[in-house]
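User: Some background: our group keeps a shared notebook of sequences we're curious about, and every so often someone picks one and asks for a predicted structure to add to the entry. Today it's my turn. The entry only has the sequence so far, pasted here. Could you supply the structure so I can complete it?
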Amino acid sequence: MTDQAISKEQRILRVLRTVLGNIVKDATPQPGMPHPFQESTVHSIRDLFGLIAEREAELAKEAGRVLNEKPYYTDQPKPGTIVKLHRPPKKKPD
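Assistant: Of course. Here's the predicted structure to add to the notebook entry:
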């Protein structure tokens, strides 16, 4: 697959996930109210989210990207800085 085809598919999956998430948020009732979806529809939505996530992971792997990328701030200190501390030599008793 070319980079252009992969990025187009990734954009399609991202929009699909966003729209599906918005539909679920808009249709979610207040606590104590009955849910408008049938149980089979809820399972289908979960399956669809799972398929989208699987395909996004496949595309990331094909592109050689790390799957657990997380956002960060440019001024954020880098994790894992190790500072060695040295103990002063013991004083001899007088």
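Suggested note for the entry: Residues 4 and 10 are 10 Å apart (CA to CA). The chain has one domain: 1-94.
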